[in-house]
Amino acid sequence: MLMGEYNHSLDAKGRVILPADFRAELGESFIITKGLDNCLFIYPQSEWEQLSVKLRQLPLAKTEARAFVRFFFAGARQVELDKQGRFLIPATLRQHASLKKDAVLIGVSNRIEVWSKDEWLKYNEEITPSVSAIAETLAELGI
Question: I need a surface site. Which of 11, 71, 81, 88 has the fewest CB within 10 A?
Answer without folding.
Answer: 11
